[in-house]
## 1
Amino acid sequence: MMGLMPSEETRTLTSTTVTDPAAQDTAEADASPTRAWRRRLLVVAIVLAALNLRPAITSLGALLEEVRDGLGMSGSVAGLLTSVPPLCFAVFGVTAPRLARRFGAGAVVCAGMAAITAGLLIRPYAGGTPGFLAASALALMGIAVSNVLMPVIVKRWFPDRVGSMTGLYSMALACGTAVAAAATVPLTDALGGDWQPGLTVWAALAAAAVLPWLPFVRNGERTGAARGASARGAAGREAAGRGASAREAAEQGAPAREAADRDASARGASAEAGAGTAGAERPALRITRSRTAWALAVFFGLQATAAYITMGWVAQIFRDAGVAAGTAGVLLAVIMAMGIPLAFVIPRVATRLPSQGPIVLVLGVCGLAGYAGLYFAPAGGAWLWALLLGVSNCAFPLALTMVGMRARTGSGVAQLSAFAQSTGYLISIPGPLLVGVLYQHSGGWGLPIALMAALMVPQMLVGVLAGRDRTVEDEAAAR
């Protein structure tokens, strides 16, 4: 499953080794036998972390009616609750690259898993809506930083397997999302029927995800910048040694040609070292100058809007149409489970295409068909609508894949990931809240579903723009 298609491997490896020396150093260091176990452990850590990036949200969606009754929430307040995830992702996600530079990406993700654990343990018993929101924000803070850093970790440790590792991570994310949606109601019934234990149980999965990240905290992460500095220092020392040898040979009467050749070698090595230093001192990428970065951010925001409306409200749509609570949870799980196979297939297909626009259009058409079904016959064709919405929901792994493809360097991926996700989640905040307000004031799901379908059109347009074959570094430098 982890194997790579030849064209994908060639494209990704060439891009990384030619244009990103830091990533190349990482790949070479991690290829050594003594560090192979860390790569294997990191695969486990990535999978466990991904499993925990959505249960805090979908478990709540499955029990939203019970939580609303227990805490006395109105439809508008429930809409606010479903808007908290993108708000937290926007606010906290932007801090992830800075935290990673200071503490290491592994340490930040480990802390994120611990925050998820604490938030899920506290929120059912926080006492009232404000405490519930605050504890949810703690868990979502951990999810936010992990969301941003996963593409960075994949690019740094697996530069020749970006598509495959993104697919694996996305599959695990979809699996965790689906299992939480399907199992929360049965678990709640098995634990006595109270919604509080049904939400708390997911803290155990988050606690398990902390463990494999601990070695990456203890051993630390030698960043690409540090490796680059070491390489430049070694080049400088080698250049100085060659220069001294050339001068010594000349003073001792060595042939002029030999001395000149050695001196030329010294100048070449010095030039290489100087070029490395100049590259290190290059100003930071001005990501906001890239039109592709903006298109990707808007695409990310609109697909996140659809995803969080789906996770927060679709189970309730089915329940209001007469579907039993347990079945509605399973339908939500089906939507999320579609991402398990497709999250692996879509990134691999996307990396083989020069433009990802066709994939964007296919996903958008499936979304429009699913919303039409929810509008006209929500209960009659519930399973078909769930399948179609599940396919449409796979815009998330596509967006993650495009983040890795639209930047050449590891630092460019980090900046693009933070910008696209933080800006995108800001864009997605009003969507779930507006759905709750429309539902409360209209007394039905007609207007909210029409809104969801209308947002799919601009998502398709900006997705085509974001999928064009270009990099943010080139666009920023050209403006």
## 2
Amino acid sequence: MTNTKDLPLRQLLKFRNAWIAWLIFFVVLGVAVLLWQVSIHLVDERTQARFRTQTLQLKTAIEERLLNYEQVLAGSAGLFSVAGDVSRDEWRVYVDKVDIDRYYPGIQGIGYVKRIGVRQMADHISSVRKEGVYNYLVSPLGTGPYYYPMVYLEPGTDRNHRALGYDAFSDPVHRRAMELARDEAKPTVTAKVVLIQEEVAEDQASFLMYYPVYQGGAVPELRNERQMMLAGFVFSAFRMNNLIDGIVGLISPFLDVRIYDNGTVSRDNLMYGSNLGSLDNDFSFQMSQTLNAGGREWLLQTRSTPAFDFLASDPRPPIVLGSGIVISVLLFLFVLALIRSRLMAQISAGRYRAITEGAASVTLVLDRAGQASYASPSSDEILGFDPGEIAALNLETLVHVDDWSKLQQGFEDAIGAPGQQQPVIRARVRDSEGRWRDMDCTFTAMLSVPGVNGVVLSLRDLTQLKAAQTELHRLAFYDPLTGLPNRQLFRDRLNHAVRRCRRSGEPAALMFLDLDGFKRINDTLGHDAGDELLRQVAEWLEGCVREEDSVARLGGDEFVVLLSRVGESEAAGKVAETILHRLCQRVRLSEHEVGITVSIGITMIPQDSEDPGTLMKYADLAMYRAKEMGRNTYQFFTPAMNIQAARRLLQQEELAAALEGDRFVLHYQPKLDLVSERVIGVEAFLRWHHPEKGLVSAQQFIGLAEETGLILQLGELALRQACIQVQALERAGFESLKMAINLSVRQLTDAGFLDMIRQVITETGVSPERLELEMPAELLNEDPRVLRELLTALHDLGVCLILDDFGTGSCSLVSLQQLPLDVVKIDHRFIRDIPYNVSATDVASAVIALARKLHLTVVAEGVETPQQLAFLKSAGCAQCQGNLFSYPLDEDALIGFLIRQYEKPLMS
């Protein structure tokens, strides 16, 4: 540095000397303030757009939820249309199958109101009591001539039992809704009520939805006929908090939401209030919308809360202002530095000597002839020569004869490029004791630099460096395959990160990554392909994080990432999303193209723990939770995962014990041909006879079976039982029925799958033409060549190949054309909203048309209403199955069903 006494700072800052610097400072500062105001305006607009989007999404979600519940009632009314009279046990079984607790939150129960004449009252009460409702009584009693008591209400909880016998028609609120539903033949919602089964302390706002049931099943054309032919109503009771809390919490958790009945804002009409903030004073945005629900008009009122404003706040405006101030100061200082540049020309005569004397290498200054004119004091310690002696020595005599030509060339190159450091030259130099030392030599020409006036030759001894490298290799801190830190080094870095977080309080994040399906790639393509994939993944991961972060390989396909400094969990989530996006792609390995994904578990330091071992365990648990959520995603650790891990271990043991104890059975759902209107086949569904839970559906344990590998044994068991059932159906006279069996990707990609299929067919003696194998759409993500070979082999056996869930995922049209498929099955998600949702109707039509263009038979699953059936017929669907025709049946019930259907036509 120059001595500030040459030009005092006070003198330098005077306006006459630094006016340009001051001008630049104020201009740049003004621009920064302007940009700051613009950024504040943009943030406000974005926040308002986010508020409006959440509000519109909330309205759509509530309307869709109510539409789904109307469909539930329509299906319930359809039960009476199909079956006529429905017994209490049949109603209970039906509601259990609907599974309202799982699929329809907010419904307190689904019931049936029956119209009873005055003369029928005594017989009605007697018959209900004979069914087990011993204290049943119709109340309140009016003047007639008809009463409308609640006869059925499921689930049969104690609360719901209180409502049995209650004549809802006696209440004007219920009567208006029931009369409108009867006359208009559509679902109708009551005004705000308090359910009769509510406790005093739980009198939250509620409402009921009624759907009329007419004698004979058909809806009369005229209103007078509807009034005369009314048989009763199916209804659902809703508690508003239970119905709306889940929707609000998912879509707009930080908005204050209130819903008013009849479109009027008043305390008496308040149906729902989220109570997250003040709707009166403290808000930035507000919006009101109208909801039409079952003939009633609801006012949906949303306003922002302080929490919403906080989360929507953006740090960029202060960053813009701060950056502008910093840039203004830097430019000001830069111009000041230019003003002082004339003082920077002075060079300290002793600076060069001070540097060379303290260096850990030998520094020589050579003249144009290559003769040493100066040697640093370190030459005595490293080479054993006195610095004054080297000037008298011939440098050529100290360098190995094989290396001298390289040094000469480096010296000439340095003279030709003044000021530029030349590439390192490895040479052997003899010390005073005659020993050769390996040294790195670099030339820099500084002939015109005052105080140097020569070519600087730096000689760095590699002896200690080689010793250090040997020690590092011995410690083996790095993975030999990927070059990433191994478990030992990563553990040390994790300990260091935990200690730093404990001292500073600044959080960090630990990520546990596992490649989805790596074992299958390793088994099918070989370990060389697997190693190449691991090297590629390591390179991608290093490109997704900062230099201060750590990426390590623990072994196999397990990687860990340590984010040394993260502001919040959201920042860690963004890094996880970056990794998912980078790794979710197809890679070519050993002439095969495969797709890979990754599951990520994240734990925060020190919030979750300050123990490295515990943090590793928590991240591992979160990673397994990500796999449960469908893979190719990330999950943060929560305390509930510890409990879930223990429960999962117990479930694994129960599943293995059930497999050994032969506690699995098959149920069968009929499949119909829409042209002949006859049953042409059945689909097999696996069920678990649990000692405590009863009959458990496959959806509740298939995922666990796939993770533990038990899916292979379960799949063989199901296939074998299905083949045996085919033989039983043939003996019963149903020779033409086909049997569909569901398969998972894990089963189909197993090396022994084809041999297992052939063995089961041979041992059971079943005809392959009677079997239909349903394969998930995710199978199309596998290597096309391997997949084509597998399906061709199955097709050659004679079995029918069905692609399940058609229209979902990444179904490639090229794959569909090239693969030997026979049938495609439309996913039930495209069917359930027909005909009420125009988008669902259009998508289903397009999927059916596409499949027919590909010359594939189309099967629709999940058909539950006559309207859906009518649409599928008109759209050209060939086959269908669903609860409209039959629920999955056990072996005995299936035989009875088939006998009844072959005795009479199934559909009119």
## 3
Amino acid sequence: MTEYGRGSGSQPWNPGDPHYGDQGYEGGQYPPQHPSQHAQQQPYYGQQQHPEQQQYGWDAAQDGSGHAAPGGYYGAGGGYPQAYDTGQQPIPQGQQPYDTGQHPHVQGQQSYDTGQQPHLQGQQPYDTGQHPYVQGQQTYDTGQHPVPQGQQFPQQPAPAGEQPHEEWADGSSTGTQPLLSKTEAAPVSSPAIDLLPGGGGDDEDDEPRRGRRVGKGKKAPKRRSGTACLVVAVVLLGVVGGGGYLAYDYWQTNYGPAPDYEGEGSGQVQVEVAKGSGLTQIGDALQKKGVVKSARAFTEAANGKLIQPGTYTLNKEMSAASAVTMMTDTKNLLTLREGIRAAAVYTAIDQKLGLSPGTTKGVAHSQAKNLGLPAWATASSDVKDPLEGFLFPSQYNAGKGTKPEEILRQMVARAVKNYGEQDLEGKARELGLKSPLQVITVASLVQVEGKYKHDFDKISRVVYNRLKPDNKETYGLLDFDSTVNYAKSQSTLDTGSVNDLRKFDDPYNTYKIKGLPPGPISNPGMDALKSALEPASGPWYYFVSINENETLFAVTNAEHNKNRERYNQEHKKAGQ
């Protein structure tokens, strides 16, 4: 249908719709075109010749009279530009016409009216699968379509109301021409077109940039959520801040000044330094107890000084230098040797703290039950001192202001801890002893009778052999001078004759009382305790130490007497 109301396209023409082109003069229709004009087609490229270029747009077809149809572009009939009606409607600038499968010849700003719909520059036609051939500034529709390399064409033209297919502006294939010329024609503008939506304005750039897609409207950019941006910023800030903090902490820990308290602190806490502990281990223990602020501060303050193993009473939150002073200054330290008696410990504490003689002994007897002794420590009423064997030999802090009960409590706590690690109750049953207290008693005898640690295991075996009630050498008697000395509160080698000793009436006199004394006679160390728990195997009943490197053990009394003669000879040579 090519009448006024409908063109060759698929859509109806609505005179009142501004989107369908200029309505002509006073809304009038375009003059009708002869049918011959509809049939006339643009010659194919490569045929005879092309119409000459004209200054004004002109329809090469003529009306029925043989004259050119009036009303060409820039005609004298009116102020608005007007094209010859070919039975099809012109598409105003800024609109998207439906592509009927034909494309106009484009050359500069001049076009030949071939009876097809003119496409105005800057508009984006729907792609129907046919493309104009462009060379230079002249384009002839050959009816054939070069396929640019790498470009895919849609199968069907887009129906009305749907999004058109995309078409590339740049041709990239070899041997074919690009779809659009490099030099675009100036956009056609008129007052009528300017009034249409999107037409004739200068506010927008209607010329697509090279390499961009045309034919499909751009979607509005998605608006980024402010909350998402805030979250990302917070996360980034956290990462940067966290990394900075870790770097700073690493620098401070390894290269910066070591964190440290100031002053001598306040309050008291007990810290145990095990045998063989290094400065770093000691510093870690002090930091855990809250004495120093950092282990590194302590090691730097110690500067290689020797810290003796033992239990120290220190203040909380004190400077590392003050802690080192309290742990190394002999004025603040009390060291107990292995095998020392409780009475000697009380005297040493009085002297260290500047107390009157007997002060610590009185505290020990009056507060023995409050110092942390285990229940089995007072199993016998004949025990002379319940703290004997529980004042563990080590080094203790006894600085100015320390009370005697505090030091005693530290000693008992250290002993209970070490004893508890040895399973004394189980070992006592294996060894045929009645209680853990008897294990400590054996250890105290080994500690005093043995002068050298390498003899402890054999001496422990001598003790257990003599305790056998059916033995034919001692008949269950220990016969140790050390027990007599303890009972008499003395320390001498001249204890008297055996006959006189057997007359001495005391529960600790092993020359008269069979078996073990009621309790320990000294405060043994860990070496003597382990020997008491694991004695060597042997039939020995007697022993005598000739010198540091030699101790003689015997099975019979006669053999033992020969060993004693040698002992006397060696002592005479040494001038003893």
## 4
Amino acid sequence: MKHASKCMLSRIAPAVILFAICFTHSSSAQASNTCEIEPSWFKNGKVIRPDDSAFPANPNNCDFHQWSWQMFLWLMDDDNGQPRFLGFDSPQSLIGLEQRGLSPRTRKQPHTGASFDEYLQAGTDGILVDQNRRAIYYSQYINQTFADFMQGKSGGPDLTNPANVLTMNPRTAFPIIGTKGTLELKASWKIVSKDDDTSKLFTIEKDIAQFENSPSGIKINPAKVEKQTLALVGFHIGGVVANHPEMIWATFEFDNNAPDVPDGMTLDQIVADQDYLFYKKGTQLGNCNKNAAVSGLALEQSTQKFTPITQVCRRYAYGNAAGQKQSNTDNIKSLNASVKKHLPNNLSIWQNYFEVGAIWINNQAATGKPDVSPLKPGLDFATDEYLTGSLKLSNSTIETYTQSATAMNNCFRCHNTEQAFASKDGLKPLPATNLNISHAFQNIFFWSQEKEQRAAIAYLQSQGEK
């Protein structure tokens, strides 16, 4: 990374107001190799997309976090009046399960309309319930590189067809096309209530699908929607860069989501004496991150409110236990502070968000060469042997209930290259492939089969009616 005194002059569109972003790194910062924001991230008031093809062949820890922050800012930068990521495809759209645009879904049943309707947390059947007793919603996105690769538009087979997946080379990896690597994203959204202070949050108005009670439990009804203002509270980025086909997995949160759990705290101790967006002051550690899906979750259908409320605590600050990978933690803290200090005015809302951490494969430890990846089909990442960065990384709003589960306490516990099986009967399993690192890829494989099944059933039914 670079260390010097620099000033960059840019313009804020559309007002064409000049502003100066000054970066002054002292000699002490040079000596300590401080991880900081770079002037090259910005040009003419806009964020420059990271060049994934030019990621360093022998990177240091800071390089991964700088890529994460620059990519986050590029995704959040204004594009036609909204953050850029909101214009991306959803995984479902690749197989015609929804319209393009701001209508992300992750349900396995196709339907039309435009509403957020994912509500279950990663790796669990848990619903995160906020202090206003409303559920948190989730949405997924993929970039054009991902979409073109999957649909066979970048030279390979159409991988939205399960038959092509079953016959492809299992070592096939997600590409970098030009300077743009494959991206997979996930966002968490809080319903804004009338008493919520949203001055520091990014918000958007959108239809969301409603819940209903059913004989088999609480379900979501995509045909019944309500318009709400939603606040962005969490954001996952998985992105391919040169020599890292496993993707860099980084996560960001709103500053005031939840308190960090101090090292050595016992279950009967109070975590924090102040309120957070997802935590009531005075709550003991033993009452944090409790999954009501296990003990009993109740829905008041007329108001769409749940009980009990989830009290959220961040189990590992910056994704590491105390004393673990301290240089990684130091770099994240330094870069977070640098970004908050130097962001231009047109990006000021993102000063209220921070990088929790990032995790990736340590090529040097795995292969003896920093530019050679060990990724291969069948890797389970059950241990941290080849991993580095934030080894206990979780987003408190996306993986609330898995933060302390050894088998699920970082991204690679779930994002691996093992064989995958469908949760429904009649679907072919997904063989072990390098592409299995992506849950969007896995979902498309199974969704496509379900779509074919439903089409066949509909055809047979139509023939029977003649």
